[in-house]
Protein: Thioredoxin family protein
Amino acid sequence: MVQHVDTLLFYLWEQQVTDFNTLIELGVDYPQFIRQGNDEQIQHLLREQAKTERVGFLSDELKGEIERLDGSYTLLVAAEMWCPDCLRNVPAFQALCRLAPDVKMSIITRDQATVLFQQQFGVERVKIPFAAILDAELNPVGTFIERPQSVLNGDEDTLSSYKQGERLADTVEDIVAVIQQHRQS
Structure:
């Protein structure tokens, strides 16, 4: 009987993660995500969040690009509070959502994301944070995986400044670029 119940639960779980809409509904918002952490994790995330709230965090040019974004988008983000890259980048995702009311965010666990993200994006492993950028019809238009492109393509100094939380605007810029490319296609 127990094995039958376990098999049924696994089947139901597999069914839950086969579409973006279900994952969005399973997800939590930013404040709920923060509450999942321990005190140290929450303090780290709040320090990064404070950086996104400073005057001059984003260039005037990037702010203008955000204001000109057209259409509704959802960031379906696989993230965990134990992950340092998540503690850096999720506040930057939230900053974008704050500035662009038509960009929403839903945060899920890596386990919740794994099956669908592997199928949809052809990744072997879901590195976090992994933001699936979805259009209004919930079609994927791009991704942000783990770190901004400037860091992935950068040198040791770039990585060091990222780890100090000095490249959060690059995260916002990467997502804005994906949305702009989608609008132009």
Strands lie at 73-78, 103-108, 130-134, 140-145.
